[in-house]
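=== RUN LOG ===
request id: a7f3
mode: sequence -> structure
chains: 1
length: 396
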Amino acid sequence: MIRRHLLSKLLEISGHYPVSLVVGPRQSGKTTLCRSAYPDRRYVSLEALDVREYARSDPRGFLAEFSSGAIFDEIQTVPELFNYLQPEVDERPQCGRFILTGSQNLALSQAVSQSLAGRCGILTLLPPSYDELCAFPTAPQDLFTALWQGAYPRIYDQRIPAAQWLADYLATYVQRDVRQLLNVGDLHSFTNFLKLCAGRTAQEINLSALGADAGISYNTARAWLTVLEASYIVLRLPAWHANVRKQIVKAPKLHFLDSGLACHLLGIRDPEQLRHHPCRGALFESWVVTEIYKSLLHAGVFPNLYHYREARGVEVDLIIDTGTGLIAAECKSGETLPGDALSRLLSFSQRLSAAKESPLVTPVLIYGGVQSQQRTQAQVYSWKDVYQVAALTRSN
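=== RESULT ===
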């Protein structure tokens, strides 16, 4: 077990609200986090069929057994409980009384907004960021192993071979949970859709083309992608709009939230194959975006992340809105930086400088080398130091 960065934020918000909810994908470490934060609190898994049936058939009696508080794991399996938690915490609004976890963001957000608005603090826990993974003795020390294995903690804690664990995870959680949520009958089409999404990581989303390639309708592709996002499998990165007199592409980008799962879906068998794979750059870009996204979420900060592309011209992989300015980030998977590595960042900065009331731009580049360096025109970060970009975001 490793200490998660979100722990301090969880302890903080449970001092403000009677209910705290930790959401995130299956196997990201939510249960371990909550039990380590509250080791003396009674723990109840709502995955167990008998417990789930008791909570559904007699919610008042169920909650009466835990009047002093409890950790309820996978609360989305019994959404009816939210309606009974509301009067319970209104009658006894003791802070930190109930700690909930859940792995389906769409259903949970609706339930909380309807029943526990103003009574519940919500945090998101994704699989560990790379700097968290480094607490494991088995943490990968080279870039392509880190990308290929991904970040799910059981791979490192239990020392399960990544290929085996990811195959089991895909079958047990992704295909089962998401298919049930969508009521998907055709497993082959859904699995093919997942693979096509993996092949499009770090690309702009074209639902018509994606649906046509998967053999499904536009509306089905949109519904499936929405649920993949709500289940923390993918992230949609919106386009950044500015007062720039250029034709800007407004389509969002698709990013897989775990590079290991994307590699598994793409059939990449080992880190050496990834090194020479045509999706290497895209997978690295998604990894960088996800690492920054994780670092901000695990600090309790909502990430304002975007991408930028002109129809004919400048493109920036990642734009981070800090509230007082912008961080423009480029991703290069190579260990050596080409001479024009900073050209797109400089062009973007010049575009905004020419616009009225433009925000201050801080250019950064993250690459596959091991040496971070300060250059005249931009800060260059090694992939191992990517967490420093999130720290820079919080300090701006």
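=== NOTES ===
The chain is about 45% helix and 15% strand.
The longest helix spans residues 162-182.
=== END ===
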